[in-house]
Amino acid sequence: MNSFNRQRGWYKDPLNKKLSGVCSGLAHRLDFPVWATRLVTILLFLSFPFAVALGYFIAHCCLEDKAY
Fold first, then answer.
1. Are 67 and 7 in contact (CB under 8 A)?
2. How confident is the model over 16-35, as a mean pLDDT?
3. Residue 55 burial (C-beta neighbours within 10 Å; 0-12, 13-18, 19+)
4. Which three-class secondary structure state does DSSP give residue 48?
5. What is the Cα–Cα distance from 47 to 1, expressed in whole angstroms?
6. Minimal CB count within 10 Å: which of 2, 21, 39, 55?
């Protein structure tokens, strides 16, 4: 019997958010530091603003909030 019940899906993290919690949820999903995920998102936004903004908006609309 496995007692390890950790939520591994991608979700929005409302307690650790700056805009909507998409980057913090992704960082938790990938076991990556939140600050690094936000930095990569900003750098990608500077290179591909429309694609990153569209992807972030879609993630914001489609992802559920983390259940605590």
1. yes
2. 88
3. middle
4. coil
5. 47
6. 2
